[in-house]
Amino acid sequence: MGSRAADGAESQRPPEDGVPEALGEESRKLTKEQLFTMAATASINFSSMICYSILGPFFPSEAEKKGASNTIVGLIFGCFALVNFSTSLILGNYITHIGAKFMFVAGMFVSGCVTILFGMLDKVPSGPMFIGLCFLVRAMDAVGFAAAMTASFSILAKAFPSNIATVLGSLEIFTGLGLVLGPPLGGFLYQSFGFEVPFITLGCVVLVLVPVNMCILPKYDSIPSKDSFWKLILLPKVLILCFTIFSLSACLGFLDPTMSLFILKKFKLPAGYVGLVFLGLALSYSLSSPLLGLLSDKLPYLRKWLLVSGSLMTALCFFMLGPAPVLHIESQLWMFVLVLVLVGFSLGMSAIPVFPEILHCAYENGFEEGLSLLGLVSGLFSAMWSLGAFTGPTLGGFLNEKLGFEWASAIQGGWALLSGLATGIFYITEATRRSSSSSLQNPPGNNEERTHLMGSET
């Protein structure tokens, strides 16, 4: 009886790639449901990012005309993330009760409607009323975004259990496309037609995608689990990985309220061209993500190196973005774009392996496989990303106002530096502990003693 139980426990232990063995045997040929799932997820990645990124080139200057300071603009950007943080945790916990497909479609619908509403805010009187409605509309948009993205991660991980990093990396092309097209498209529509048209146009596109996804997205059944967020987040490795997600998001979020203002003042570019500068970051991220995802799935032992080196590289890039005044280097447009390209690549190095690493850690610690766990991990990932996306613009707006962009970007890179060092120390400690444990369980003399005893018996 005892040996049978031990055998059962051994069979449930996850393999090195972080997924159960039965899931690793799925066919390489994509099924119709998998293709539809990828198409639906690609649509939310693209539409949500293009709606999010159109604000960058013109909203900070427009908000300043309406009486909002740099700090307030940062808070408006950060408000989206703060609401997203709390909503992601709640929705991730209840995804099996609500239903992943319903959560996905409802989130898209809310996001599309609220994007159109945001375009009407230029009609609101300047001052507290404008600022208050900006906060309200952004908060509503965050709820829709959190619902769609939390469901999206869970559905993807359910549909592609053995190669989730590859699929996530491939779909980041559409995230990058949204980030690439959003700023120049938003800047062009703003310059040509005014404040309302960019938001109304993109909001309508999102609403058109809602019935399409209702038809093509498969429905995944699920059984509620007793596992909780607290049990997951209190695992030391998961805590470190959460800090990595937070730091990367804080660095990226810092650029939203600050970078366009810096480019306008430093390089004297018109609003329409500001969006083109964003291309450096978005293109490098989206083009490198599929390769990084493939590496993460095929060579799981590389994930730790990608996480550490990506964080340290991000810290160095943000130190050079200004550049930091202590370097006494004059900022130039070509150098600024080059650093943004490196930022996009380094963010991908750290961001892509995080999701499968958290899943692997959860399986190692006895979490039940299923949509319930995927909802927990998706909600946790979205929540930590949102927390960073709140801290980055809020702190960034304040530091930019008090110290200037050069010092603010250098200080912001400190988040990535801390996460890179913390992750590196954790993996070194973990490897040392496993090595010590292995040597204690298998002392060098064991084999010699066993050979000697067997010889004496004969």
Q: Can you give a write-up of this model?
A:
The chain is an all-alpha fold. It is about 80% helix and about 0% strand. The chain is built from 19 helices and no strands. The chain has helices at about 1-10, 30-55, 55-65, 70-95, 95-100, 100-120, 130-160, 165-195, 195-215, 230-235, 235-265, 270-275, 280-300, 305-320, 335-350, 355-365, 370-405, 405-440, 445-455. α17 (about 370-405) runs antiparallel to α18. The longest helix is centred in the last third of the chain and has 37 residues, at about 405-440. The radius of gyration is 24 Å and the shape is globular. The model is unreliable at about 1-25 and about 450-458 (pLDDT under 50).
Mean pLDDT rating: 78
How does the overall form come out from the CA principal axes?
Answer: globular
Number of strands: 0
Distance between the termini: 33 Å
Low-confidence stretches: 1-27, 449-458
Largest sheet: none
Cα-atom radius of gyration: 24 Å
Number of helices: 19
Estimated helix fraction: over 70%
Given helix and strand content, the structural type is mainly alpha
Order of helix and strand elements from N to C terminus: HHHHHHHHHHHHHHHHHHH
> Beta fraction of the residues?
under 5%
